[in-house]
Amino acid sequence: MSYKIYNPYRSVGEEFKNGMDFIIKNVPSPIASVTFEQLNEIILKYFQTISTPKIDTSIINNAVLSILPNTANSYQNSNLRNESFYNEQQIDLIDSLYASIKANDVEGILSVLNNADEEIAESGLSAVDQAPLFVAVEIGKKSYEYWLSAIYDAKSPWIDLLNKNAAINVANLPFWVTTSMEGALSGFAQIQQFDMNVATSSNSVGRSVATMSAMLGAIGLSSGKMFFKWVRKINTTKLNLNKETISILNNNTEEGVAALTGSKFLCGSSRAGGICVCGHSVRYNCESRKYPCQDF
User: Distance of alpha carbon 208 from its chain centroid, rounded?
Assistant: First the structure.
C-alpha cells in the first residue's frame, strides 16, 4: 500500500505566480519610482481579474486594499506571533519550518516544503487549523520556483530589482520564500478575523475568500519587499508592568519589594552573575536582611 500526502491548495500557488507576473507587468515606469499606493491598486486589479464577488463590491475592495498595509506592518514589526488567530501549535510548526528552510542548502528548500505537507497532515490539527499552513507551504513552493527562475533568467522582468551578483540573490532566496509564506499567513488571518457569530456580509467575506486573501498577502509582501526593501525592526523584549506593580517598585523598601516577590527576594538571573531584586549581586549573602536573597 502507498502513503501520500496531498496539499489541498495547489491552485493558490499558481495564482500566486500569476499574480507576481501581473504585478511586474503593470507597475508604472520607472520601477524605482513605484509607490506603495500604486502597488496596492495593482493588487486590487489582479484580484478583480480572478474573482467574481457575489456581495457588495465596495466591501470586497476595501477588504482587499487593507491586506497589504496590514501585512507590511506585521512583517516589519515581526508581529505574526502576536496574531490571535493562530494557536501555539500552529506557531510552533511555522517557526520550525522557517528555521529548517534557512538552515538547509538552497537546493534542499523544496524538499523541506514537501516534507512540511506531511508534518502538517500528521500534526493532529483540525482541517480548519491546517488550512492556512497548507496554503503558506504551497505558496512557499511556488515562490521558490519563481525566484529561482528569475535569478538565472537574464530577461526576467524583475532583473532590475535583483542584485547583479547572482550569489547574493541565491543567498536571499530562503528569506524570499519565508517572506511569501508570512504574507500568506498574515493575509489569511486578516480576512478570517471578519468571521463572527452573526450573519453579516463581512462574515461572508471571511468565510469565502480567506485563501485568496492569503495569496494576495503573499503577492503584496513579496513584491513590496523587492520594490521598497522592507526590513524587520529590532525585536526587543518589552517589560509590561501594570500600575500596581510600578507603584510597588517605586516604593523602594523591603516591605514594597516583599509585596511584589513574596517572603523572599528572588534573584532574577543565573549564577553567572547579575543583580538581585534587593540590589545586590546574585551571590551576595543577605543574611542580615529580613528577607534573604534566594541564590538559585
Answer: 22
| pLDDT digit string, tens, across residues 234-273 | 866 554 555 555 555 555 555 554 544 443 333 433 334 4
Using CA atoms, how far apart are residues 221 and 176, in angstroms rounded to an integer?
A: 10
C-beta separation of 109 from 174 below 8 A = yes
Q: How far apart are CA 41 and CA 71, in angstroms?
A: 15
Q: Which residue matches cell numbers 485568496?
A: 212
pLDDT tens per residue across span 3-19: 889 999 999 999 999 99
Name every residue whose Cβ is closer than 8 Å to that of residue 192 and which is 6 or more positions away in sequence: 85, 206, 210
| Sequence-distant (≥ 6) Cβ neighbours of residue 58 within 8 angstroms | none
Closest CA to 119 of 133, 99, 135: 133
Distance between the two ends of the chain, CA-based, in angstroms?
55
pTM to 2 decimal places:
0.76
On whether the CB atoms of residues 150 and 215 are closer than 8 A, the answer is: no
Q: Cα–Cα distance between 105 and 225 in angstroms, integer?
A: 22
Q: Bridge partners of 281?
A: 275
3-state secondary structure of 105: coil
